[in-house]
Amino acid sequence: xxxxxxxxxxxxxxxxxxxxxxxxxxxxxxxxxxxxxxxxxxxxxxxxxxxxxxxxxxxxxxxxxxxxxxxxxxxxxxxxxxxxxxxxxxxxxxxxxxxxxxxxxxxxxxxxxxxxxxxxxxxxxxxxxxxxxxxxxxxxxxxxxxxxxxxxxxxxxxxxxxxxxxxxxxxxxxxxxxxxxxxxxxxxxxxxxxxxxxxxxxxxxxxxxxxxxxxxxxxxxxxxxxxxxxxxxxxxxxxxxxxxxxxxxxxxxxxxxxxxxxxxxxxxxxxxxxxxxxx
Length: 279
Description:
Blueprint lengths: L4 E6 L5 H15 L2 E10 L12 H26 L5 E10 L3 H9 L4 E5 L10 H9 L6 E4 L11 E5 L4 H9 L1 H6 L2 E7 L13 H9 L4 E6 L6 H12 L3 E5 L5 H7 L2 H8 L4 E4 L1
Parallel strand pairs: 1-2, 1-4, 2-3, 4-5, 6-7, 6-9, 7-8, 9-10
Antiparallel strand pairs: 5-10
Helix pairs in contact: 1-2, 3-4, 8-10
């Protein structure tokens, strides 16, 4: 297995460069095709326009989205013309309430979707539903890329957040091209169960599975000495010098994570290295 079809979804010119650079680096490394969707987003909610708003306001917001899509498309083409990868750029406009349909249509035919970090003070409201649409409706794996890091090609050290969930297993399988080429893969088990068939060998079966695929694996069993699992995993990634984290996404419902927080949301907010996600 390898990645042959990569997709970058760009909705904000300010965060296009790092995402594009990561897409180009992976497309070159895996001899893959890179598709770029430059999407202008009408962030207004037309159903909530104040009294007196009319078609002129709707036309203005759509034109603003078209201009943004055109700017992103031009920037992407200018960047990609100077590379040796196979690429295609498409553009369009979507209202934020209808964003998922546009993302899922492309994501379901991609091996990996490369997206910017969805949370932060200057981030648009469309970045979170873009990532979730790729994961859920598109059923694709996602690589979340921070803005201020150089593109990652072959991470030498990778941490996998392992809790025996189906989401974590799907993520580990999907990340195999990265895991096989790494010098070390740390399977991180936090507070393993004291009962059950794997209590005496936490992480043993997944490490065996990955080893048979050629990955060099080490199991790290950690105590939950911080309130949030994501903080423990991030700290361990820093201590081991990991350049990527692999984890299952949204073990709880998206609504619960949005309201109460959760490992996925906290990781996406705090991570300063690329995070590979699958559901």
